[in-house]
Amino acid sequence: MFTTPRRVLPNLACLLCKQASRTPVCQWCADDIQWLAPPGEGENLLLKPDIATAVAHSHIHALKAAAWYSWPFDSLIHALKFSHKFTLADYLCDAFLQQYPVNQTSLPDLLLPVPMTYRRYWQRHYNQAVEICKALAAKYQLRWEPQWAQRTDNRLQHTLGREARKQHAQQAYCLQPLTSWQTGSPPLRVAIIDDVVTTGQTVNNLAAALKAQWPSMVIEVWTMGITPAPGQRRC
Ligand SMILES: [Zn+2]
């Protein structure tokens, strides 16, 4: 059984069922989440055939995620993404940490959040991937870099179908020069951070851009949820 993280937080009700709870998600709701691996037994999810065939990963060495992006986990990410529920970034990362404990996980040198378009940032005032990245960096004691890439295409991923996302992701990003990388050695191992991976095209294209500059770089993707491919929907 997955144990909902026991962090002292100012909420008094479960964000999903609204019943009394000292944690953002009560144990009853947490039991309904479809976790991808038992706590402490996290692995490279690209070793799972159903995930490897659905997620683009030609430039990605490893994929790590907490749960399937289905009820009720999708509601948590949606609340973080669209309703300013920043408490959930901490909860989601605690859940990730339970599956990938610090002492059992080979850690990257740098965490890189998936960037957001300026237009979207202006509308929302925050990037949920950055909020997740900040929480992960604190828990794993890792460096992170928020300004490492810039989106050059303003179309929104979640409004596109799987095929349209594939086209949209191509050449949608350009990397920014980073002072620490210019003056020192580039990181050998990085993790791209996102809230949800659906087709994997976005993170795979970001990984391709990194590989173009640093061919020997080991690139992982850390995400909170993975969307089941069509035909693999879980109810
Ligand atoms: Zn609940």
Q: How large, in whole angstroms, is the Cα Rg? A: 17 Å
How many angstroms does the end-to-end distance come to?
Answer: 19 Å
Query: How helical, in percent, are the residues?
Result: 25-40%
Describe the largest sheet: 5 strands, parallel
Structural class: alpha/beta
Overall pLDDT, averaged? 83
Oligomer: single chain
Q: How many structurally independent domains?
A: 1
SSE order, as H and E? Answer: HHEHHEHHEEHEHEHE
Strand arrangement across the biggest beta sheet: 1-7-6-2-3
What is the correct CATH architecture?
3-Layer(aba) Sandwich
Strand content: 15-25%
Unreliable runs, pLDDT <50, ≥5 residues? none
State the CATH class: Alpha Beta
> Quick one: overall form?
globular
CATH topology: Rossmann fold
Give the secondary structure arrangement, pairings included.
Elements: H1 27-30, H2 49-52, E1 62-68, H3 73-82, H4 87-99, E2 110-113, H5 118-124, H6 128-140, E3 143-144, E4 149-151, H7 162-169, E5 173-175, H8 179-183, E6 189-197, H9 201-213, E7 218-226
Parallel strand pairs: 1-7, 2-3, 2-6, 6-7
Antiparallel strand pairs: 4-5
Helix pairs in contact: 3-4, 4-6
Bound molecules: zinc ion.
